[in-house]
Amino acid sequence: MAKSKDNLEDKIVAVEEALSKTESFFEKNQKIIMIVVAAAFLVVLGVLGYTKFISGPRELKANDELFMAQRYFEMDSLDLALNGDGQNAGLLEVISNYGSTKAGNLAHYYAGVCYLKKGEFQKAIDHLEEFSTKEVLPASMALGATADAKLELGKTDEAIDLYKKAANDFSNEFTSPMLLMKAATAYELKTNYAEAIKIYEDLKLKYPRSQEGRDADKYIERAKGLSGGAK
Rounded to an integer, what distance in angstroms lies between the CA atom of residue 19 and that of residue 140? Predict the structure, then answer.
């Protein structure tokens, strides 16, 4: 009985370590990701904002209102980013006043990530699901963040589906390996090692140059060990 308990504890520790590594990757790279996302949208907003009869004054005003909230977001001042500082609008005010603009759309994304970091997972989902884009990187990040919130709420199956969708529908070398790794570790939380191994093998095949792809063999062997050698 003691041996069985120790084995279970070993499994839990192993999975938690794997999850911790993917979260560490996100934490180390989140500023780069956010800068890329912000830059992509600001370029679009800048071009459209100053083109007559396309964006107009409302789009310009929305972009100006969003500026300070973005700065607070980048400083990790989440409450100021969401609610403003008394002089400058926060993300929620931008959404309320300019929800139909591109800046309002982007504000949903920032707000969703803010709530995710604050541990208010349903609010995070609500905002992230309002965000829409055809750009590969922000689309994959938004779906991945939604999956993170679902996982925190115990909706593991939904989280797995979203991780895989984000990785495969918006395939790219930067976020897809991380998202597939999260899907695999979520499968391990369900003790579904066979599916986890399939994803690790997929990682190895599709993204061999990524850190996750290079580590795939190690994770495959670990998952096999946790499953008692099952293939």
Answer: 19
Does residue 213 contact residue 43 with C-beta atoms inside 8 Å? no
Q: What is the DSSP letter of 135?
A: -
Cα distances (angstroms) measured from residue 86 to each of 61, 66, 79, 90, 212: 18, 14, 12, 9, 44
Rounded to whole angstroms, how far apart are CA atoms 153 and 27?
Answer: 20
| Element housing 65 (H / E) | helix 56-74
Nearest to 38 by CA among 130, 138, 133: 138
Query: What span, in angstroms and rounded, lies between the C-alpha atoms of 105 and 122?
Result: 18
Burial class (CB in 10 A: 0-12, 13-18, 19+), 66: buried
pLDDT, tens digit, for every residue of 34-53?
A: 666 665 565 555 555 455 54
Are 59 and 101 in contact by the 8 Å Cβ rule? The answer is yes
- Closest alpha carbon to 139 in 114, 174, 115, 104: 174
**Digit-coded pLDDT (tens) for 156-207:** 999 999 999 999 999 999 999 999 999 999 999 999 999 999 999 999 999 9
Torsion sign across C-alpha atoms 166, 141, 175, 63: positive
Query: How high does pLDDT run on average in the chain?
Result: 84
Task: Specify the 3-state DSSP secondary structure of 131.
Answer: coil
Residue type, 81: A
Amino acid type, 80: L
Angstrom distance (rounded) from CA 55 to CA 194? 51
